[in-house]
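Researcher: Here's the sequence for the chain we discussed earlier.
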Amino acid sequence: MKKWLDRLIGGTSKETDTAPGAGAGVAAAGDGAEMALEIDSAYYRWLTASCGTNARSEVEAAILAEVHALAGDPENASGLVPRIPDLVAQLLNALSNENISSAAVAAEVGRDLVLVAEVIREANSAYYRPAKPIETLDGAVAMLGLNGLRMLLARIAFRPLVKVKVQGVARAVAPSVWRHSERCAFAASVMAPGLSASVFEAYLAGLMQNVGLQVAFQVADRHGEGKVPAAGSFGIALFAASRQLSSVIAQHWEFPADVVEAIARAGDADALDATHLTQALVQGDRIAKLRLLLDAGVIEPEDSFVSTGLNGFQRRCLGKLADLAD
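Model: Thanks. This is the structure I predict for it:
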């Protein structure tokens, strides 16, 4: 974990860390490639409704060409992404120790009053549903557990990476992109155990996947002068290009190799050789997009995307996402 944390805050550590593997003997990541593309198209049109416009094909081509070029220059591309606070990175690194005690975790978190408030708020959220309100840091740490704290701190760390302080298109879509990131990370982590994938790596992949998309929207804003091509087919191509951009930034920051691969291959929903982690991310991404489209009234629960596109467990996860606060 130390390598990618150092990269996020601009460090140069050369320490090594072995990430858990996603396993072998993989089943198909999904049997609805065409449905996945339809969901991507509908999600993109909804995401850009306030800033979309009919664009010439050469504008679309120029945007995609620049995003692909950035994917070939990860150092420059990662420079377009903000860094995270040192304390959050230090806490995440401390939590990589499976033997750390609850008291030690509470002591680390207690160094920052904002983090204390975030942890207590999370412990009292609709997801955890405590029998009575939790008012102490020790109680909140006990409720969340080590993995819950890891995921909360990762979410805090990634928030400024996606909620970039820019103008135009990137600013307009940032709140919705972040909502998708949170929901994708959660859903992917829920899917992970059934696929023998790492829960925390699935969560990281879900958060990291959209970092390249925000950079891509900055590119689109420059070419479109404050607007972005509205066509769903362009959105599908932009998502694919931005996933590759996210994966090369993750690799440049020395994220676990499994996370890098999962992001890079998440667009191939029917890949028979997809890793377990890739499958978890694919499923989490689809569930998160459906949740946002349902909440916006773009689709209904009876829609085939939901009724036949998801199995019972995935539909329960879709319902649980409604409990996540923004």
